[in-house]
Amino acid sequence: MLTYKFPWIFELAFKIPPLLIWRKKSLKTLVRAIRELSIQPHKILDIGCGAGVLTPVIKKLYPEAEIFGIDNSIDMINFARMRYGNLAEFKVINFLGYEGSYDLIIGFYSFEFFPLFEGIKRIKKLLNPGGMCIIVTTGRAPFSILHRFFVSKLLRTELYLYSPSDFYKFLVEENFSLRTKIISEIEGSYLLSIKSLG
After folding, report:
1. pLDDT band at 14 (very low <50, low <70, confident <90, very high)
2. What is the value of pTM for the model shown?
3. Domain locations in the chain?
4. Are 162 and 135 in contact (CB under 8 A)?
5. 2-196 in CATH: which number?
6. Which of 84, 94, 161, 164 is the most exposed place for a label (fewest CB within 10 A)?
7. Is the dihedral of CA 7, 12, 18, 19 positive or negative?
């Protein structure tokens, strides 16, 4: 992905509106959802961690937990290691082939890079019984469709847009509970809390 070769430029874009406002609002919703969890995770996985923007946030909430960030981009991972290598372990790994076991999995605007069935299948494999997964992503709102078109061209990769019902279809019958929180109807962004009941 083209812009992922220049992490500092990628991150600089989030220092100015409207991306600054969008990220702050999404992070605030994510932190609130994490604080409402009824678990104390020992191992946390950040899917598509990019430049590691979530790392200090997660570490502040769970100072004793082990944090693992994975991403396809070696440039992003190197940037994350440089900034937050003392707080978490970062690896260049494709999420869809990743192995491990975690109490909390977070996907912050990363799930749109994965085919839904394969992504959910991997979460089910990685999540410990009683564990939680929180996904922040965008649905099929007009803004998101337009955003998807431009970002997919810029990053030179396929992007997917899923509604909450798409997730429910794959998870409800398989011993998982789900809760949805709308972040912005204009942007089509929302948060999913997924709990493994098994």
Report:
1. low
2. 0.88
3. 2-196
4. no
5. 3.40.50.150
6. 94
7. positive
For residues 119 and 96, the answer to whether their CB atoms sit within 8 Å is: yes
Sign of CA dihedral 78, 79, 83, 88: negative
Q: What are the DSSP E strand ranges found in 111-197? A: 127-138, 176-184, 189-196
d(CA 57, CA 36): 15
- Residue 57's contacts (CB-CB under 8 Å, 6 or more residues apart) are 27, 30, 31
Whole-number percent of the chain with pLDDT over 70 = 83
Residue with tokens 């909390």: 104
pLDDT in tens, 46-58: 999 999 999 999 9
**133 phi/psi in degrees, rounded to 5:** -130, 130
Q: What is the token pair recorded at 8? A: 């500092």
Q: How many CA atoms does the CB half-sphere of 26 hold within 13 Å?
A: 26
User: Which residues share a beta bridge with 189?
Assistant: 138, 184
- The more confidently predicted of residues 174 and 95 is 95
Rounded Cα gap, residues 150 and 120, in angstroms: 26
- Rounded distance between C-alpha atoms, residue 71 and residue 54, angstroms: 13
For residue 43, what are the β-bridge partners?
66
Q: How far apart are CA 72 and CA 83, in angstroms?
A: 18
Identify whether the C-beta of residue 183 lies closer than 8 Å to the C-beta of residue 29.
yes
Q: Quote the radius of gyration of the chain (alpha carbons, Å).
A: 16
Task: Specify which residues 177 forms β-bridges with.
Answer: 195
